[in-house]
Amino acid sequence: MILEYKDIPIFYKDQGQGNVVVLLHGFLETSIMWKNLISEIDNTHRVIAIDLLGHGQTGCLGYIHTMEMMAEAVGFVLDYLKIKTAILIGHSMGGYVALAFAEAHPEKVERLCLVNSTPFSDSPERQINRDRAVRAVKQNHKNFIRMSIANLFSVDHREQFVEEIEFIKMVAMKLPVQGIVAALEGMKIRKDRSGILKNSDVPKLVILGHQDPVLEYDTVLPQLKGLGVEIVAFVGGHMSYIENIKEFTYKVKLFIEN
């Protein structure tokens, strides 16, 4: 489905019946990343999967897509569909957007799940790496995509998931350079939202990868303690929905059903 929003298209999928689950993809991904999970839950839930700004079939709004801007676009879709409350599940960047949405609309969030994501802002070192990534994208975005996607998987899984890696690369190659840069700039300046997790009374789940090359497990784990979240960690990297598909699907289903 396509909606017009601020003179750009927003693409979303809407299928199934029941309590609403909103799925928000990560950086360099699109709503297609959720196809396996959707097939597992759309018989019991209404599932809304949205292409975030500058990704998939959703257009770009500017040079920077802040997490607040992305959350506002998500809210526009949910308002159009007259959805009052939902379970939010966000992978990586999608988790940042889910937190921004929860901050703006706490009354609309029934449950919140962050997949290979964090409520914390970028460290100064991480911000420098974002700037390097922006330069690399502007120089040759295809090379950037080729290198970035494989590196999201744990070293032990890269050969095992060659086909999946190639598919993600193919999807990412279709993204506009503006959308990639705008997301990097937006993630770089996102604020710390750990307080959203700590102060919210809704059930919260964080899924981590022991060998995540993006979010260092030994650093993130102690930071999350005391925030009132359930933490689940799998053996693997930043792509738990692929690297640990059975365990991931089971845990998500358990979270949204109980």
Automatic annotation (TrEMBL):
- Gene3D superfamilies, A to Z: alpha/beta hydrolase
Q: Which Pfam families has this protein been placed in?
A: Abhydrolase_1
Q: Give the CC-aspect GO terms.
A: membrane
InterPro entries attached to this UniProt entry? AB_hydrolase_1, AB_hydrolase_fold, AB_hydrolase_sf
AB hydrolase-1 domain segment(s): 19-244
Q: Which PANTHER family match?
A: HYDROLASE, PUTATIVE (AFU_ORTHOLOGUE AFUA_2G14860)-RELATED (PTHR43798:SF33), MONOACYLGLYCEROL LIPASE (PTHR43798)
Query: What is the protein name stated in its UniProt record?
Result: Pimeloyl-ACP methyl ester carboxylesterase
